[in-house]
Structures are given as structure tokens and as C-alpha cells.
Amino acid sequence: MSLVLYNTLTRRKEPFVPLNKGRATIYVCGPTVYDFCHVGHARCYVTFDVLVRYLQDQGYAVTYVRNLTDLDDKIIQRAQEQNLSFSELAEIYIQAFHQDMDALGLLRPDREPRASEHIDHMIADVQALIERGYAYPGKTDVFYEVARFADYGQLSGRDLSELRAGARVEIDPDKKSPLDFVLWKQSKPGEPSWPSPWGEGRPGWHLECSAMSSEYLGAEFDIHGGGHDLIFPHHENEIAQAAPLDRGFARVWLHNGFVQINHQKMSKSLKNFFTIRDVLAHFHPEALRLFVLSKQYRRPVDFSDEALAEAGRSLDRAYQTLAQVQDLAGPPGRPEDLSQAAEAVARFRQAMDDDLNTARALGRLFETVRELNRLLDEGRESGRPDVDALQAWSGAVQAMGRVLGLLVREPQAYLAERQETALSDADLSPQAIEAKVAERTQARAEKRWADADRIRDELKAQGVILEDVGGETRWRLES
């Protein structure tokens, strides 16, 4: 089975057939940088990070472009409130965005163009649309004439007559139709502006992506991605701007579903959002990544502390398993072990081939972790661990993890970090735990079983688990 993706434009799953064999070109709408990113942004950018990783895993040479909207009404307003230039404010939040994405383990895109650096290209596109009869200058702004584009609504499935009926007729008397949208707008005093044939102004929001995608990926490219909320009007308007300029534009359109709180979309406008850095103050970045991948990307995912905590526990258990295998030195594995592990990876890839079904793929990954634990248990019982098989299955887990951006840290380092965090949260120290363990060992040696049990229970209540192995007591923190 080859990779099949749900194309929003055609409303069906289609085999992924790139324009150029062995190469994949992707454009994803980036953030408007006026504030910190929230968990909804994490869902979007982790989704497309996994797409890039999977295409690379399949042998494609990927060119990935993700823009930065650094020029927008919200940015200008926030900058004025803070007595900053728009570029100063944008730079603050661009750096914050990169910090958040790096924390989540995202690959950096090959290109990350900024809207403010591509004004000339956008002006040229507006001029070309006017010349071809798809746009017109008003008294102050330049508008796209939606009625001139016969295929308007093809991406969103919206009917033009219904859109007209639902529009507010008196939204702008300068427009020919209330559906027409701004390509170039006159700047107000004190706002950033650039010279143009229509006076000092700045581009409309929709214009930047249709201009920059063509500059970096060409007139036609493979995949355009973004959140479900961008289908209309943003992506619809991008198509309307590109088609009259003889651009085939995106062949496949992918849109991720929302993060929800109490079954309601998480968004800044609804004021029910959590920033990524708020969440990472309490949960490990990989736990957030696992959480957003726990549903297939087109489906909504319900945010909760409980869901994040469970994701963290699953990661802890998987890392503990990998760490135990890592302690057993051995060769890569016997052919029969490698074959069985390869079959597990093949089942994982079958799930990914089905429109990036990360929910099912995660199921395959954790099935493989359970197989590792079974082999470890057998080895403990027999006293002769099958190192070859363990190494082969561990390699399968790590191969799946690399595609999802999970389990990519060095296991012992991850567990040490988690232990340090847990000890700090519980106001414990390794020295205090060791002292309690020593006290319990002494009680056991003196056959004071009640005291030994009391110490064990006290530590367990604090999240410390004791394991008596071969006459030695080891301790670990609960996941």
C-alpha cells in the first residue's frame, strides 16, 4: 500500500503522486506572530512535521516551506499598545514560536519566508490580477472581484449564491460585491506602509501565501496544509488569487482538526486556550506531542490534564522499557528476529499510509513496546534474556518513534530528567530516598517486618516504588 491522503479539494482519499518522482513539495500556513502559540498551533505544526518525517522515511526528498505572517492588523495593534514597531513585536514572537517548536521537537522548514520581505512580489500579483480583469481599485483599496472566478467555493464546498445571500450588504460601499476581498489596503497614519501604484499601503492577508508559495515552490506544488479554520476564506481566496495567474497551485490540500475543550474549539477569540509554554511548564514536550497525535489529524482532539498525564505515563513506560534493553549489550539481532520486527514496522507504516492515521500507528508502536516487555519478562524468569530479539524489537520501536518524533531522546537521559522533575515536584531528594531505603534494609535484616512495610508504604505514598531484586533494593518513581 502506498501513501493515501484525504484531499479537501476533491473530498476523497487519493494516492499521493508527486509532481516529480521522488520529491515532495509542501507549503504550510504559519502563525500570525502577535502572541504566544497555543495548543491548537501545536496540533497543526506537529501534524505537518510528522508528514514531512514520514515522507522522508519513505525516501522522498522533501522541500518544506512554512511562512510567518509578520504583518497584520493584530500585530500592528499590539505593537502600538506596547509602543513598539510592528517588526520589533513580530521578532519577539517569532523567537518565542521557534522556542516552542524546538521544544516540541519539530524539524525546521527548509524555508520560512516572512510576509514583510515579499511585498514587491505581492504588488506584482495585484497588478497582474487587475490587468487580467480579476481585481479592481476602489477609492483607497484594491479588491478581488469574486464573481469573476467561476470556481470560487470549490475548496470549501460553499455555493456563491448562498454566500451572497448571507453577506452583510453594507460592509463596504467601495466594493462591487460584499464578497469581494482586499488585495491591497491603504495604511492609516502611523501604520507601516509601502509605495504602490495605488498609493501607500500594505497587502491583504490572503495575498501573502499565494505569492510566497509560488516564489519558493513554483507555480504548482504537491501539498498545501493548515488548520481546518483556514479552508474558508483564507485558502479559498488563495486559490482564487493563484488560478488567474496561470498557477496550478496546490494539488493536494490537507487540513487538521481542532483541539477542543469541553467539545468547543480552542481559540484565542473564545479565550479558552492554553499556550504551549503554559502546558510545557507542567508536562513533558513529548507528552504534548503524543497527545496531539493520539487522534487521526483530521479529527478533533479533546484537551485535558488527564489526557496529557496519561500520555506522559505511556512515554515513561516506553522509555523505561528501552532503557532496560539498552543495558543489554548485543548485536543487531538474528535474521528471524529482524524479520518479525520488520513486520511490526510494516504494520505501523500501513497505518501511516492510510491518511497519516497516527492513532492507529501509535497502537502499533505500543504493541511493539508490549512485545519488548514480554521478552524482558521471559528473560528475567529464565535468567537468559534473548538479547538478539530484544535488540531487534527495540530497533523497531525506535524506527516508528522517529517517524512520529517520539522516543527520540536517549532513554537514560530522559528518565533522569523525568526523575529530577518528579523529585522536585514531590519535594524529595535522592539522598533522602536512599536513607529511607537503607533504614528499611536494616529493618528487614533485623526482621522488623512491620517497620519495613511502613517505610515501603510511606515511600509509595510519595510516588517512590521499591523493587527487591536479587537481594538488592532498587527504587524508581511512579510514571
Write a concise synopsis of the structure shown.
With 479 residues, this protein is of the alpha/beta class.
Provide structural commentary.
The chain is of the alpha/beta class and 479 residues long. It has three domains: 4-265, HUPs (Rossmann fold, 3-Layer(aba) Sandwich), CATH 3.40.50; 282-414, Isoleucyl-tRNA Synthetase, Domain 1, CATH 1.10.730.10; 426-477, no CATH class. The protein has 16 helices and 15 strands. It has helices at residues 39-57, 73-81, 86-103, 119-131, 160-166, 205-217, 231-242, 276-280, 285-293, 305-326, 335-353, 358-382, 387-404, 411-425, 430-445, 449-461; strands spanning 4-7, 12-15, 23-28, 61-66, 135-137, 142-144, 181-186, 201-203, 220-227, 249-256, 259-261, 264-265, 301-302, 464-469, 472-477. The strands form five sheets. It has a four-stranded parallel sheet. The protein has a four-stranded antiparallel sheet with strand order 5-6-7-8. Strands 12-11-13 form a three-stranded mixed sheet. Helix 2 crosses helix 3. It is elongated. 40% of the residues are buried.
